[in-house]
């Protein structure tokens, strides 16, 4: 552990196999790496593939070590902001994604009724992937 | 004050026609009153762009050497109907490839189908044609395969038997599980409400008794010129109406036709509806000539004047074929993003692109103002015109 490095705050997406579902990941991040994890969304069921969106803050060195640890454990790690891509040229501006989006990341600006995407608000629930008729939103992990 | 379509066309040719879109006319009518606004305005342009099943394309491929009478036809592995003639086919927007897993793992993705092939052709992209035949003395060939683009196809026109629904169901889901419908993904316990209409901009809501739109009317279809060919399938003008003549259900529909070679993929899109299938998003614009004060009054309709039935698309509702209407909501409520229903705030979302509908109405306006597009006198009215008894029954 280092106290020399900068404080960082990162949103990441974790995907892990069924055998890792019962691992106390959040406990490890706190106890072994001195990080502050905030669970934005978790989809963790016994015997099934799990996924979790975490907001992590702490020292950069600790954060990097934790990333290495998670990758070593076989978790897929990606950055939230990079993983959801909304292509405004493909979008027809219908808005079919906006009522199922729980965080308001995909929203309609009124009265113009145009669709916009705020990646900061996205929690990667992936409802929009099902809802978009022209596949303008893609999950790129 | 009355005007004829011929008089309006004279003004278009002289560059003197006053053309506004169906959104702009609302404020003008409120400012000037129906009478003065009707004197001032000659044409109101409308638009809509939504998912419209019952769409498809007639295609004629040049005769091959040696000749073939195509019995089975596929375009990018999507089957097209070949039982028309030797090298004619009809490609339906809702068709999917035979190898598509469909809903084997529900909800299916339906990534590609007839609607997507139509979009690819209009976008100028290559499509793989494959055909088989039994062989005849005059058409001996048994198999044919060729990569082609729209340019290589002899004639290609959209002929959509049912587009441009006058009004439509608004969908929610009262059941306790998510349903995947042609109205989108509907969450349980009325988790969301989806609607599919451009409301105040939508063509047949601006001419509720089809006084000016009829067989032969020239329209904007998919970015090019098109025509109303016939009343659409399921055309039901006798549906109940409100005091402004606005139907409270689907009511009127149009069968439309237009040359694919003039179209633009911005206004024709293949769509994948999770758990449901594929279809085609179609952009349509219809000009409404302001023949008299009543026509102006009809085009001044605004979202708050248009009610639509809120229907339960859950397992005990729409799918059963039994009545499923929970009540009525108007488009002003729907477009606000939320509806209050029995003490609960429910989020709403459109399936139809209002901003693209407005873009279509604007393009149509430009076409008319530049003299490129003149209005046409219908050669035959649509069924339902006889229901007109004056605006507000006057």
Number of helices of chain B: 7
Largest sheet: number of strands, sense, barrel closure of chain A: 4 strands, antiparallel
Query: What is the beta-strand fraction of chain A?
Result: 25-35%
Distance between the termini of chain A: 29 Å
Please name the fourth-level CATH homologous superfamily of the largest domain in chain A. ACT domain
Bin the helical content of chain A: 10-25%
Number of strands of chain B: 26
Overall number of structural domains of chain B: 2
Give the H and E element order of chain A: EHEEHEHEEEHE
Level-1 CATH class name of the largest domain in chain A: Alpha Beta
Total number of strands of chain A: 8
- Oligomeric state of the chains present here: heterodimer
Write down the Rg of chain A: 17 Å
**Spatial strand order of the main sheet of chain A:** 2-3-1-4
Layout: helices, strands, pairs:
The complex is a heterodimer of chains A (141) and B (394).
Chain A: E1 7-16, H1 25-31, E2 36-43, E3 50-59, H2 60-72, E4 76-79, H3 80-83, E5 84-86, E6 106-109, E7 114-117, H4 127-131, E8 137-139
Antiparallel strand pairs in A: 1-3, 1-4, 2-3, 5-8, 6-7
Chain B: H1 5-13, E1 19-21, H2 24-40, E2 43-45, E3 48-51, E4 56-61, E5 72-75, E6 78-81, E7 88-92, H3 114-122, E8 127-132, E9 143-148, E10 153-163, E11 170-172, E12 179-181, E13 184-186, E14 192-195, H4 203-206, E15 214-215, E16 218-221, E17 224-231, E18 254-259, E19 268-273, E20 277-285, E21 287-289, H5 293-299, E22 307-312, E23 325-330, H6 331-335, E24 338-341, E25 344-350, H7 354-369, E26 380-381
Parallel strand pairs in B: 1-2, 11-22, 14-25
Antiparallel strand pairs in B: 2-21, 3-20, 4-7, 4-10, 5-6, 5-8, 8-9, 10-18, 12-13, 15-26, 16-17, 16-20, 17-18, 19-20, 22-23, 24-25
Helix pairs in contact in B: 2-5
């Amino acid at each position: 552990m280092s106290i020399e490095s900068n404080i960082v705050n990162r949103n990441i997406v974790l995907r892990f196999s069924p055998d890792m579902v019962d691992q106390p990941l959040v406990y490890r991040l706190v106890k072994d790496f001195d990080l502050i994890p905030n669970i934005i969304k978790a989809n963790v069921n016994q015997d099934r593939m799990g996924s979790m969106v975490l907001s992590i803050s702490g020292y950069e060195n600790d954060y990097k070590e934790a990333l290495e640890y998670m990758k070593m454990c076989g978790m897929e790690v990606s950055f939230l902001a990079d993983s959801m891509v909304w292509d405004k040229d493909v979008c027809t501006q219908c808005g079919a994604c906006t009522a199922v989006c729980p965080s308001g990341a995909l929203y309609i600006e009124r009265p113009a009724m145009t669709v916009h995407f705020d990646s900061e608000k996205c929690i990667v629930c992936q409802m929009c992937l099902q809802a978009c008729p022209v596949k303008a939103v893609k999950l790129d992990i | 004050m009355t005007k004829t379509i011929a008089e309006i066309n004279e003004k278009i040719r002289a560059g003197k026609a006053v053309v506004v879109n169906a959104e702009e006319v609302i404020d003008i009518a409120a400012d000037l009153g129906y009478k003065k606004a009707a004197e001032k305005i000659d044409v109101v342009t409308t638009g809509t762009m939504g998912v419209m099943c019952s769409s498809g394309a007639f295609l004629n491929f040049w005769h091959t050497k040696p000749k073939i009478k195509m019995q089975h036809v596929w375009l990018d592995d999507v089957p097209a109907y070949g039982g028309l003639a030797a090298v004619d086919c009809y490609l339906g927007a809702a068709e999917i490839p035979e190898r598509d897993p469909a809903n084997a793992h529900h909800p299916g993705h339906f990534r590609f189908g007839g609607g997507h092939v139509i979009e690819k052709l209009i976008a100028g992209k290559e499509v793989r044609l494959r055909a088989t035949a039994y062989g005849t003395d005059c058409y001996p060939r048994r198999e044919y395969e060729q990569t082609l683009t729209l340019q290589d196809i002899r004639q290609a026109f959209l002929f959509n038997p049912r587009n441009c629904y006058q009004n439509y169901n608004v969908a929610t889901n009262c059941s306790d599980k998510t349903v995947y419908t042609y109205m989108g993904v509907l969450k349980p316990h009325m988790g969301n409400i989806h609607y599919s209409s451009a409301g105040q901009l939508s063509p047949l809501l601006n001419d509720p008794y089809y006084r000016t739109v009829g067989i032969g009317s020239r329209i904007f279809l998919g970015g090019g010129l098109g025509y109303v060919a016939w009343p659409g399938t399921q055309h039901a003008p006798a549906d109940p109406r409100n005091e402004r003549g606005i139907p409270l259900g689907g009511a009127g529909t149009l069968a439309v036709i237009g040359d694919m070679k003039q179209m633009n993929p911005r206004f024709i899109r293949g769509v994948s509806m999770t758990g449901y299938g594929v279809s085609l998003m179609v952009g349509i614009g219809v000009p409404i000539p302001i023949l008299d004060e009543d026509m102006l009054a009809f085009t001044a309709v605004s979202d708050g004047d248009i009610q639509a039935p809120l229907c339960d698309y859950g397992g005990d509702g729409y799918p059963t074929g039994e009545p499923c209407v929970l009540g009525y909501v108007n488009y002003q409520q729907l477009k606000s993003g939320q509806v209050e229903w029995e003490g609960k705030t429910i989020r709403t979302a459109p399936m139809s692109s209002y901003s693209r509908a407005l873009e279509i109405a604007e393009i149509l306006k430009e076409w008319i103002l530049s003299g490129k597009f003149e209005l046409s006198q219908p050669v035959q009215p649509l069924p339902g015109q006889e229901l007109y008894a004056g605006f507000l029954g006057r």
